[in-house]
Design goal:
It is built from eight helices and 13 strands. It has about 300 residues and is of the alpha+beta class. It folds into two domains: about 80 residues, Phosphorylase Kinase, domain 1; about 160 residues, Transferase(Phosphotransferase) domain 1 (Transferase(Phosphotransferase), domain 1). A hairpin with a 5-residue loop joins strand 3 and strand 4.
């Protein structure tokens, strides 16, 4: 075994904690990715090592956030530590799948299902005060054989609601919400905007803000797609964050849409009336000259789903 020193790249065979380096996989903004194998357990995982000491705090923050959120669409954090030279590292579950950026000609069913599942992950994180803030097609993996249909393994730019002011500026991107570009306070609706951009491009084949021309509603570009889907994506791209749905609302709307409209477009869609949470007791008087008796109706028993 080779000893670990402060080097730019860890070589094959280097042992880090209980892991042995197999090969380098690539890098993110905060660290270098390696495929590693556990020296005891029959398990391969991905190890992320900070590029430098200044980025170490950000890398460890990512590890803590991913470990705390605990969603099947996110990797499991197995271990973490610090190299002898001071660079932090952590090892996470290896997730196999193709990125959304590699997909071609997705139909409305596929787009709706992917957006639904990504929104579920985001809503889960948002409820815990965590925002991704760097959602991109290549950061979304399709994992039909995994613990969840999609996965978001990279959370290197994620922040908590009380640490947004510590964000370092990033190069402008087509996925940035207007409030991000303007340097205004952001919340989970910035993630909804980025997901809207991804959904718009996946369904239409073009980015919604690719040039300086006026925004073309998705229902105009894709008239054959279910209007409930195109209108929802248009709402996700609203300039005013208060006019966008939350990630939880996107997920809830698409759960019903995929089942009722998209997957069975030829079947009649029954009208759904949600029962109110509480209904005051009501009485009705029978109309007729022979009786003035009152008829009591129990709405809970009379309600028809």
């Amino acid at each position: 075994m080779q000893s670990v020193h402060l080097v730019e790249t860890l070589l094959k065979g280097v042992r880090v904690g209980a892991h042995q380096v197999e090969c380098e996989l690539g890098s993110t903004r905060t660290g270098v990715l390696y495929e590693v194998v556990h020296i005891v357990l029959p398990r391969r995982s991905v190890m992320k090592v900070a590029h430098s000491l200044p980025l170490g705090v950000q890398l460890l923050r990512e590890a803590c956030l991913v470990a705390a959120i605990q969603h099947p669409g996110m990797p499991i954090v197995f271990d973490s530590g610090v190299l002898p030279g001071g660079r932090p590292w952590f090892a996470i579950e290896r997730i196999d799948g193709d990125s959304l950026a590699e997909q071609q000609q997705l139909d409305a069913v596929q787009v709706a299902a992917i957006v639904r599942d990504v929104a579920d992950i985001l809503a889960h994180a948002h409820r815990r005060g965590v925002f991704h803030l760097a959602l991109r097609p290549y950061r979304i993996l399709l994992t039909p054989n995994g613990r969840f249909p999609v996965s978001i393994p990279d959370w290197s730019m994620a922040r908590t609601h009380d640490a947004l002011s510590s964000m370092s500026p990033l190069p402008p991107s087509a996925y940035d919400a207007p409030e991000v570009v303007r340097g205004e306070p952001v919340d989970g609706r910035a993630d909804v905007f980025a997901l809207g951009v991804i959904a718009y491009a996946a369904l239409s084949g073009v980015e919604p803000f690719a040039d300086d021309t006026a925004y073309v509603p998705l229902r105009t570009r894709c008239p054959a797609a279910p209007p409930e889907l195109t209108v929802l994506i248009d709402q996700m791209l609203a300039e005013d964050p208060s006019e966008r749905p939350t990630a939880a609302e996107v997920h809830g709307d698409l759960v019903e849409l995929v089942v009722d409209v998209v997957e069975t477009p030829t079947a009649p869609v029954p009208m759904r009336m949600r029962k109110p949470r509480w209904t005051p007791p009501m009485t009705f008087a029978a109309v007729g000259p022979a009786s003035d008796d009152e008829i009591e109706i129990d709405l809970d028993e009379a309600w028809v789903d």
